[in-house]
TrEMBL record:
Name by which UniProt lists this protein: 3-oxoacyl-ACP reductase
Molecular function as annotated in GO: oxidoreductase activity
Family stated for the protein in its record: Belongs to the short-chain dehydrogenases/reductases (SDR) family.
Bilayer-crossing regions: none
Keyword Calcium annotated: no
Keywords recorded for this protein, A-Z: Oxidoreductase
InterPro entries reported for this sequence: NAD(P)-bd_dom_sf (IPR036291), SDR_fam (IPR002347)
SUPFAM superfamilies reported for this sequence: NAD(P)-binding Rossmann-fold domains
Superkingdom of origin organism: Bacteria
A Pfam short name: adh_short_C2
């Protein structure tokens, strides 16, 4: 299997738990990593931090143009940015609906569109979106916009996979269950305990386990994987 081309990898949500882990791993692999987030990311070897609001279409397309100018061009784009609002469904508000859809779904759309434009001109590449198991079967204790936005991400993934294939652009998504992260720390302790105890493995996913699935989808071994929503939930979805 040939070594992957060492160009630029764009990671949105680069200041988050999953995003920062991916930034480190791709930098260690020798890629130039453009670490994009609305929060500042520390500059270090092979990491180019950029403050970007992914709900700003022009800013996202400018990000893609900058990645294309890197040595080796844009090889992978990972839409990792997202927000997560725990709430009782009876208290789900309109403001968080609009905010969640804007970041999780519209931001992913802008990322896919910007990466697609560059990769089509460069002869191919990989796009990986972050979906969620909740996008397939819903979820309790979180704003309904979470599941709605993530099912939208899954649909976007399939649309861009079909459009990208003739241009050598492979588009896939990873759909994790709940991850041990700052986001799930927002749950009340009793809710976290209940979610953990009801899981077949009696634990939530680790960041490293989800990151490994993302990295697989950008690897040479995934050269025939396209339009897939890769579930990483430890079997919680079995039977649903």
């Amino acid at each position: 299997m040939p070594e992957p081309k060492k160009g630029a990898v764009v990671i949105t949500g680069a200041a988050g738990d999953l995003g920062s882990h991916l930034v480190s791993k791709y930098a260690e692999d020798g890629f130039t990593v453009i670490a994009a987030d609305i929060e500042p990311v520390a500059k270090r070897e092979r990491v180019v931090p950029l403050v970007v609001d992914i709900t700003d279409r022009e800013a996202v397309f400018a990000l893609a143009a900058r990645a294309a100018d890197q040595a080796g061009g844009l090889v992978s784009w990972i839409n990792s940015a997202g927000i997560f609002v725990p709430t009782d469904i009876a208290e789900a508000d309109e403001a968080n609906w609009h905010r969640t859809i804007a970041v999780n779904l519209t931001g992913t759309f802008f990322g896919c569109a910007a990466a697609f434009e560059v990769m089509r001109n460069e002869g191919g590449g990989r796009i990986v979106n972050l979906g969620a198991v909740a996008g397939r079967r819903g979820g309790l204790d979180v704003h309904p916009a979470w599941a709605a936005s993530k099912e939208g991400v899954h649909a976007l993934t399939r649309v861009y996979a079909a459009a990208g294939a003739p241009h050598g652009i492979l588009v896939n998504a990873v759909a994790p269950g709940l991850i041990e992260s700052q986001a799930t720390q927002l749950f009340a302790d009793e809710d976290r305990e209940r979610l953990t105890e009801s899981h077949p493995l009696k634990r939530l996913a680790h960041i490293e386990e989800v990151a490994a699935a993302v990295r697989f989808l950008t690897s040479p071994e995934a050269s025939y994987v396209n339009g897939t929503i890769l579930t990483v939930d430890g079997g919680a979805n079995v039977g649903h």
